[in-house]
C-alpha cells in the first residue's frame, strides 16, 4: 500500500499528496490545527509560505508571551466562534446550560487505508483506486465534545474529500447549530469567484465576480440543492478554460447547503461549504455523533476544463453506481411534450412501434398514466393505473416494447401528494406541515413527510410494485416543488432538524431501491435541474437538467452544468418547434446537435412525422449510436462560452478522434468566417475531417485553428469530426 498521508512529528505537519495534488496542515503550539497549502503537488514543505505574524491591538491570544499567535490571524482548518477568530465559523454548538462557547484543540489523529463509507449519506465510494483517510480529532475538554475532521485522498484523483463529525462525550445533551463540511483559509490574491445561479428553465447560469471585503454567502433553504445557487464554488486568478489554477469545491448533498467566502481585514480569504446553518440544528444525547456530508475539493492547473475533467472522472469513478458507470444509456423517447397528460394505451403502442422502427432504445411514459391525472392538480399519491386511459394496464405495453426489443420506463413523483386523493384521506398526517399553519401549495401539491418510516415504506412499496408488476427498467423520479412548512405532524424532534432528516429519509429510500434493483435506470428530475448535485449522482446515474429544450437557452444550461457533471449524467432531448418554453424556432440540426452533446433522447410527437422527418430522426439516431462512446466516455472540453458572446463551442475527444460542435447564434454580416482552435490533438499526427475529407495536422488545428463558413441565418451549428490518420 502506497502512502499518501504523512504526519511529521518533528514539525507537526500533516501532508496529503499524490502526483496531482498536495494538501498540508500544521498543529500550531500543540493546539490549533491550521491550513498551510492546497494545490499542485509539492515534494517537500519547509514553511516557505508561513505568514510572519505580528502583534496587533484587538487580537486576542492564548499566550501573553506570544501575542502574535492570535486566532485572529491563524488560517484555521475548522474555525469556531467566541475565541478570537472573529470570522465566519465552521461549527457552533449549544450546550445544555445555553452556553455557546467551545474551544477545540488538537488531540490525536489516525490514518486509515481506504475511504470512509457513510451509512446514511451518499459518499465517495471505495474502488480499486487506492485511498487513505486521515482523521484528526480535536477535543474540547471543558464541554466534553469531540470534533473529528476527515480527509481522504485517492491515488490518481486531484480531489480531496473532507467531512466532519461531532461526538458528545459528556453526560448532558448538546445541540449542534452549525457544522460545515470544509473550511479553508488562504491569502486573498485577487482571485475571482465562480458560482452558478438559476431558476426553473434557466439552470446553471455562470456568475464570475471579484471578491470584495466582507462575507459573500449563497446556498439553498428550499429543501433541495436547487438551481437557485447549486453547491459549487471555484476560485481562480487568471485562469482560462485551458490554463491557470482553479480551486473548486462542491458538496455530496441534495438538501439545504451553504457556501461562504469571506475576505477579511487582513486580506485573508476563507472559503467554506456545508449544511445550511440557518435551517439546521441537531440534538446529540450523551455518546451520540453527527456526521456532516462530504465536500470535494479539487485542484487544477489546467484551467476550468481541467477542473471539470477531474470532477467528471471523480464522479464517474466514485459516485455513479458501478453498474451504470460504463454501461451504454438507452436513447429515450419520452411522451411528455408529445401529448402532456393526454396519454393512452393506443398512443403508447403507436409510440413503441415508431420508436422501435426509428432506432430508439426505450419508451418513457411520462406523467398522466395514474389516478385521474389530467392536470397537475390531482392524483399524486394515488399510484394506480388509470384504466380509462390504459384498460389493460401497463404490463402489456412493457411486454409489447420487449417484443420490439426496446425498454420501457415510467414517470413517478414519489415524494408528493395532491389534495383530494385517496392517500390524503387515508393518511392526512403524512403531509409535511407544521402544527399551526396550513401548508402552502406548490404546483397544486403537498410534500410527503419523508421522516416518517411508514411514508418511506409506502414509497419503496409503490416503486417496487411498479418495477416488478409492470416490468419497467427505467424510472423517472420527479420533484416538482420545493419545501415550505418543513415539519412533521408526528415527530417530536426540533423543527430545525427537519430538512436534514427529510434528506436522510429520502436517501434511505434511494439506497433500498437502488440496492434491490441495480439494473433499473433511475433518472433524476426536479422540473429539470431543480435538485441536481453530486449526492443525487450517487443514486441517479443521469439527470434531466432542464425543462427548457430551446436551441439557444440549452447552450448556456449545458455549458454551465458541465463545470461539474460528466456528460453521461446530463440528459438532453430533441423537442418540437416552435419551442414549447420559448416559442423560438431553431433548426432540427441545431437541436439535434445540442441533444447529441448529452445523454441523448427525444420528446416530440414522432408518431405524426412525415416520412422525411422520420428519415432525419433515423439518421440522427444512427449517427449518435456511432458516436455515443466518445460522447459519453471521451474527454469533454468547453471551447467557447455562450455567456461570452454569440458562439458556443465544445468538444469530445479520445486518442483517435474528436467531435466539435460550434453553435453560432445570430448572423453578423461583418464576420467573414469563424475560426476555431482545436486543443488536445496529437501535434505529431494528421487528422482527417470526416465531412470534407480534408487533412490537417494536429499542430495547425491547435495553433492556427480551423476556419469555418459563417453561414447566413440564425442559430446554426457546424460539426467538425476529426479522425487521426494512421502514421
Ligand atoms: C416536470 C418534468 C417534466 C415532466 C413534468 C410532468 O416538469 O421536468 O419533464 O415530467 O414534470 O408533470
Q: Keyphrases for this structure?
A:
727 residues; alpha+beta; ten-stranded antiparallel β-sheet; eight-stranded parallel beta barrel; 38 strands; binds alpha-D-galactopyranose; alpha-galactosidase activity; GH; Alpha-galactosidase
Could you explain how this protein is built, in words?
Its EC number is 3.2.1.22. This is Alpha-galactosidase. It is an enzyme of class 3 (hydrolase). Strands 6, 7, 8, 9, 11, 12, 14, 15, 19 and 20 form a ten-stranded antiparallel sheet that branches. The model has no long low-confidence stretch (mean pLDDT 97). The longest helix has 23 residues, at 611-633. Helix 7 (453-470) packs parallel to helix 8. The radius of gyration is 27 Å and the shape is globular. Helices cover 20% and strands 31% of the residues. The chain is built from 13 helices and 38 strands. 50% of the residues are buried. It has 727 residues and is α+β, with helices and mostly antiparallel strands. Bound molecules: alpha-D-galactopyranose (GLA). Residues 336, 366-367, 411, 478, 480, 525, 527-528, 544, 547 line the site of alpha-D-galactopyranose.
Radius of gyration: 27 Å
The overall pLDDT average reads 97
The tally of beta strands, per DSSP, is: 38
Low-confidence stretches: none
Structural class from helices and strands? alpha+beta
Catalytic activity: Hydrolysis of terminal, non-reducing alpha-D-galactose residues in alpha-D-galactosides, including galactose oligosaccharides, galactomannans and galactolipids
Keywords: Glycosidase, Hydrolase
InterPro entries: Aldolase_TIM (IPR013785), Alpga-gal_N_sf (IPR038417), Alpha-glycosidase_related (IPR050985), GH (IPR017853), Glyco_hydro_27/36_CS (IPR000111), Glyco_hydro_36 (IPR002252), Glyco_hydro_36_C (IPR031705), Glyco_hydro_36_N (IPR031704)
GO biological process, one term: carbohydrate catabolic process
Amino acid at each position: 500500500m502506497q502512502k499518501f498521508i504523512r504526519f511529521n512529528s518533528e514539525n507537526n505537519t500533516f501532508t496529503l499528496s499524490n502526483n496531482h495534488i498536495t494538501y498540508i496542515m500544521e498543529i500550531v503550539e500543540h493546539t490549533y490545527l491550521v491550513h498551510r497549502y492546497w494545490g499542485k503537488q509539492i515534494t517537500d514543505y519547509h514553511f516557505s509560505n508561513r505568514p510572519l505574524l505580528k502583534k496587533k491591538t484587538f487580537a486576542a491570544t492564548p499566550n501573553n508571551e506570544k501575542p502574535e499567535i492570535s486566532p485572529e490571524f491563524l488560517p484555521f482548518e475548522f474555525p469556531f466562534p467566541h475565541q478570537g477568530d472573529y470570522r465566519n465559523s465552521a461549527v457552533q454548538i449549544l450546550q445544555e446550560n445555553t452556553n455557546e462557547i467551545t474551544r477545540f484543540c488538537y488531540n490525536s489523529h489516525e490514518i486509515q487505508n481506504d475511504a470512509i463509507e457513510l451509512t446514511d449519506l451518499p459518499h465517495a465510494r471505495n474502488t480499486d483506486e487506492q485511498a487513505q483517510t486521515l482523521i484528526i480529532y480535536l477535543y474540547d475538554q471543558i464541554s466534553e465534545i469531540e470534533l473529528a475532521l476527515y480527509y481522504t485522498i485517492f491515488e490518481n484523483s486531484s480531489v480531496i474529500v473532507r467531512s466532519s463529525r461531532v461526538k458528545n462525550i459528556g453526560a448532558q445533551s448538546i445541540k449542534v447549530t452549525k457544522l460545515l463540511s470544509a473550511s479553508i483559509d488562504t491569502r486573498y490574491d485577487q482571485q475571482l469567484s465562480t458560482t452558478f445561479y438559476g431558476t426553473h428553465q434557466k439552470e446553471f447560469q455562470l456568475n464570475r465576480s471579484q471578491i470584495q471585503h466582507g462575507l459573500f454567502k449563497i446556498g439553498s433553504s428550499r429543501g433541495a440543492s436547487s438551481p437557485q445557487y447549486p453547491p459549487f464554488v471555484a476560485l481562480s486568478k487568471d485562469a482560462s478554460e485551458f490554463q491557470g489554477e482553479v480551486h473548486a469545491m462542491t458538496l455530496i448533498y441534495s438538501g439545504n447547503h451553504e457556501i461562504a467566502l469571506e475576505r477579511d481585514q487582513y486580506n485573508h480569504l476563507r472559503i467554506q461549504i456545508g449544511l445550511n446553518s440557518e435551517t439546521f440544528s441537531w440534538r446529540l444525547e450523551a455518546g451520540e455523533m453527527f456526521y456532516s456530508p462530504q465536500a470535494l475539493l479539487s485542484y487544477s492547473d489546467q484551467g476550468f476544463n481541467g477542473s471539470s475533467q477531474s470532477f467528471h472522472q471523480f464522479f464517474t469513478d466514485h459516485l455513479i453506481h458501478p453498474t451504470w458507470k460504463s454501461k451504454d444509456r438507452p436513447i429515450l423517447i419520452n411522451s411528455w411534450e408529445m401529448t402532456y397528460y393526454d396519454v393512452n394505451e393506443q398512443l403508447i403502442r403507436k409510440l413503441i412501434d415508431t420508436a422501435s422502427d426509428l432506432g430508439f432504445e426505450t419508451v418513457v411514459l411520462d406523467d398522466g398514466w395514474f389516478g385521474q391525472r389530467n392536470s397537475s392538480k390531482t392524483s399524486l399519491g394515488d399510484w394506480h393505473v388509470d384504466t380509462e386511459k390504459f384498460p389493460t394496464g401497463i404490463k402489456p405495453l412493457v411486454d409489447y416494447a420487449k417484443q420490439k426489443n426496446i425498454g420501457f420506463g415510467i414517470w413517478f413523483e414519489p415524494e408528493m401528494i395532491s389534495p383530494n386523493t385517496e392517500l390524503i384521506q387515508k393518511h392526512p398526517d403524512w403531509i409535511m406541515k407544521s402544527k399551526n399553519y396550513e401548508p402552502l401549495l406548490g404546483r397544486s401539491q403537498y410534500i410527503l413527510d419523508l421522516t416518517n418510516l411508514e411514508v418511506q415504506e409506502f414509497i419503496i412499496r409503490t416503486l417496487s410494485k411498479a418495477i416488478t408488476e409492470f416490468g419497467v427498467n427505467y424510472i423517472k423520479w420527479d420533484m416538482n416543488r420545493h419545501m415550505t412548512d418543513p415539519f412533521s405532524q408526528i415527530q417530536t424532534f426540533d423543527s430545525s432538524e427537519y430538512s436534514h432528516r427529510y434528506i436522510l429519509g429520502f436517501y434511505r429510500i434511494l439506497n433500498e431501491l437502488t440496492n434491490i434493483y441495480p439494473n433499473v435506470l433511475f433518472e433524476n428530475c426536479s422540473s429539470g435541474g431543480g435538485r441536481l448535485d453530486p449526492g443525487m449522482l450517487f443514486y441517479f446515474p443521469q439527470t434531466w437538467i432542464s425543462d427548457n429544450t430551446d436551441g439557444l437557452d440549452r447552450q448556456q444550461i449545458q455549458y454551465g452544468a458541465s463545470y461539474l457533471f460528466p456528460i453521461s449524467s446530463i440528459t438532453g432531448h430533441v423537442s418540437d418547434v416552435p419551442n414549447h418554453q420559448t416559442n423560438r424556432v431553431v433548426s432540427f440540426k441545431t437541436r439535434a446537435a445540442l441533444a447529441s452533446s448529452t445523454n441523448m433522447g427525444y420528446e416530440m410527437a414522432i408518431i405524426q412525422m412525415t416520412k422525411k422527418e422520420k428519415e432525419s430522426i433515423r439518421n440522427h439516431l444512427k449517427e449518435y449510436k456511432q458516436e455515443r462512446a466518445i460522447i459519453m466516455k471521451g474527454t469533454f472540453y468547453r471551447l467557447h462560452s455562450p455567456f461570452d458572446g454569440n458562439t458556443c463551442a465544445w468538444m469530445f475527444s479520445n486518442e483517435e478522434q474528436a467531435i466539435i460542435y460550434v453553435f453560432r447564434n445570430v448572423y453578423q454580416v461583418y464576420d467573414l468566417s469563424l475560426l476555431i482552435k482545436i486543443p488536445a490533438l496529437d501535434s505529431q499526427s494528421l487528422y482527417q475531417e470526416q465531412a470534407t475529407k480534408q487533412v490537417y495536422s494536429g499542430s495547425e488545428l491547435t495553433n492556427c485553428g480551423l476556419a469555418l463558413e459563417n453561414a447566413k441565418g440564425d442559430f446554426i451549428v457546424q460539426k467538425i469530426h476529426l479522425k487521426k490518420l494512421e502514421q
